Amino acid sequence: MKKHNFSAGPSILPQEVFKKASQAVLDFNNSGLSILEISHRSKDFVAVMDEARALALELLGLEGKGYQALFLQGGASLEFLRVPYNLMKEGGKAAYLETGTWATGAIKQAKQFGETIVVATSKEENFSYVPKKYEIPSDVSYFHCTSNNTIFGTQMKEFPKTDIPLVCDMSSDIFSRKIDYSQFSLIYAGAQKNMGPAGTTLVIIKDGILNKTGRSIPSILDYSQHISKESMLNTPPVFAVYTSLLTMQWLKNLGGVDAIEKINETKANLLYKEIDRNPLFKGVAKTEDRSLMNVTFTLNNPEYQEIFDKMWKEANISGINGHRSVGGYRASIYNAMPIESVEVLINVMKDLENKI
Amino acid sequence: MKKHNFSAGPSILPQEVFKKASQAVLDFNNSGLSILEISHRSKDFVAVMDEARALALELLGLEGKGYQALFLQGGASLEFLRVPYNLMKEGGKAAYLETGTWATGAIKQAKQFGETIVVATSKEENFSYVPKKYEIPSDVSYFHCTSNNTIFGTQMKEFPKTDIPLVCDMSSDIFSRKIDYSQFSLIYAGAQKNMGPAGTTLVIIKDGILNKTGRSIPSILDYSQHISKESMLNTPPVFAVYTSLLTMQWLKNLGGVDAIEKINETKANLLYKEIDRNPLFKGVAKTEDRSLMNVTFTLNNPEYQEIFDKMWKEANISGINGHRSVGGYRASIYNAMPIESVEVLINVMKDLENKI
């Protein structure tokens, strides 16, 4: 029996993606070869990489708008480093919004390159909300934010209107909602939430923003070099890119970001409604900043934890324990999460209420 | 019908590894979850990472000898950068042996950190041999070499006896032969030849060599931080690590490096014997430096290329075109390559001789 997987990441992908990826490990494209043993320079894999890069832009509405897509390695954590290396002017400054653990990590890396201004933080309230009133200095090289905070269950609903180049870590909500992606100069996202397995990072870069820092950049960290080699500066993570392509194809067939946004809203609304209705539970994140991807909540009375944990495990639910820095529960309901699984969780919450 | 895959990398892995990896994409360890959707913090995956790290050391005879194994991302190309960052003293020097394209790449990165002395190079003869007479200066932080040169088909048979810490890129021959691995202070290897799919890099680090440079290192590039987090500083490439573990388990069951070395020698000797015997062919690499992993050869008469290419394709052989910088042919016969496939290639070479 299949589990209801609410893991925060690596996390659920569509069942048809698992089936196709599994088959490709045995035989890719009827080539007689596994996807794991083909050359990344083979015609078939170059086609995979080209389609993946193009489809990422298409799904975000950035096709033909002067953007490049790359599939790199190292996780969002390596982009924390690549971003200031490539964008912060020598002797310059950058501005960051601190909305959670990963934003803090990005800030730490930027500080090695120059003055890093934290324009606002919600750290003093354990990142339970997204700061909204802040000024972005006019002399910074870029402004960096995190669109969705996986650990705390908050999400930015709006982004600042500014002439400063916007950089956004969208690791946990890319491809999940309709926004104007062309407001960003650079977007990056670790694959392992809405896009694919752990092992690749999508980076979207607006033309014309690179090579302005006066800084010497090691080639493997230089976005320009990756772009000039069409995301094959060195051997790419073939399987992770292929599986990401399968997931993007699934999303396109479903109707793209417009269609999935409606489904994501339905799932999140159902779950938040139950959290607000059920007297045993309360939400963690400030209501207006609630994430559509990661739903954080706690029991009002910790005494019920043991019985609740037993009940959801019996219902074949996995991965809803909260992050250690927040506690309680976190239900991650990414694109591939079926509404039926969300309903199973809601029914367990109702059953708990009826039981006690 | 299965192909005979002589690809230089990503390259052939054992058939049983493909089967087990394919099954794990559908259901990992009877968990009801795909290996692609489980948390890297789950008990089952932590066990995979721990076993992979321990087994890598065991297979190299380094168990209990004061070494740490890491499975990182970014390919050997990122290690070209991490090595000088972590080992070259601030204001110090490093020595490199230039035996091929990848060595040149490593040298280029090191130059960004300090004086990089190329102790010898075979560039002037298109890297067809491994330089042997050179001096390693006594004041360098480390000596870097490439044990096997995938593109040119040469391999180091001996390593310098020196008190200087030895660093070796073993991407294309790790786990393939018996050598005293404890002579090295640091070994790294991209997985995609003898270990697993593209997407992870094994790094082996001797205790006590880190934190001596006086240099500030960004955390994602700092080996110490990866060691302290047991190779989970950020989300690891779960599937690539798991598949690498499966390949290492296969090797252990076969009898380890001792056993595979004999098989590798048999395969290479058969093929080199035919190259030397068959009047239509000649080897590219200097005889004493011939690689047991990548066998480079050319037709004496290029007029036969068309018919030879047709013949090996009909025999279901793939991936033996030489690298563009060498031309001719390259048969990569890594650990997982069955002797039967080598025999098929030899038979095609003999058939060509009989035909013309």
UniProtKB/TrEMBL annotation, chains A, B:
**Swiss-Prot/TrEMBL catalytic activity:** 4-(phosphooxy)-L-threonine + 2-oxoglutarate = (R)-3-hydroxy-2-oxo-4-phosphooxybutanoate + L-glutamate; O-phospho-L-serine + 2-oxoglutarate = 3-phosphooxypyruvate + L-glutamate
User: Recorded GO terms, molecular function?
Assistant: transaminase activity
Q: Which residues form the Aminotransferase class V domain?
A: 5-345
* SUPFAM superfamilies, sorted: PLP-dependent transferases (SSF53383)
Enzyme class (EC, first level): transferase
* Cellular compartments annotated: Cytoplasm
According to the record, cofactor stoichiometry and binding are noted as: Binds 1 pyridoxal phosphate per subunit.
So, what pathway does this thing act in? Amino-acid biosynthesis; L-serine biosynthesis; L-serine from 3-phospho-D-glycerate: step 2/3; Cofactor biosynthesis; pyridoxine 5'-phosphate biosynthesis; pyridoxine 5'-phosphate from D-erythrose 4-phosphate: step 3/5
This protein's assembly is summarised as: Homodimer.
**Protein name, per record:** Phosphoserine aminotransferase
Source organism per UniProt: Flavobacterium okayamense
